[in-house]
Design goal:
The protein is mostly helical and 87 residues long. The protein contains six helices and two strands.
């Protein structure tokens, strides 16, 4: 069944193009699932059950707790990094 899901494709809201489910399972931080995998795939797959069955309890909980930084915080962080590099 995993192979069947791996070939499914959908538009990625983060990248703007088409990606496979296999990509979404491995493109996150530290080569884990993308933090948006549940948001993106819930209409196509019983994604929560799939992840519970295929991830460790710790990895599943980490994914459930994952939230992106607010855009403003990310921008401020990037500006600070750029300042530190140039000056």
């Amino acid at each position: 069944m995993d192979e069947q899901f791996d070939r499914l494709e959908r538009r990625c809201p983060r990248l703007g193009g088409s990606v496979t489910f296999a990509y979404c399972k491995a493109c996150g931080d530290q080569v884990g699932p993308c933090w948006k995998i549940i948001d993106c795939w819930w209409e196509h797959i019983d994604i929560v059950t799939y992840l519970q069955e295929n991830l460790s309890a710790e990895a599943f909980q980490k994914l459930m707790d994952a939230r992106p930084k607010p855009k403003l915080a990310s921008l401020v962080e990037l500006i600070e990094q750029a300042k530190n590099r140039t000056g």
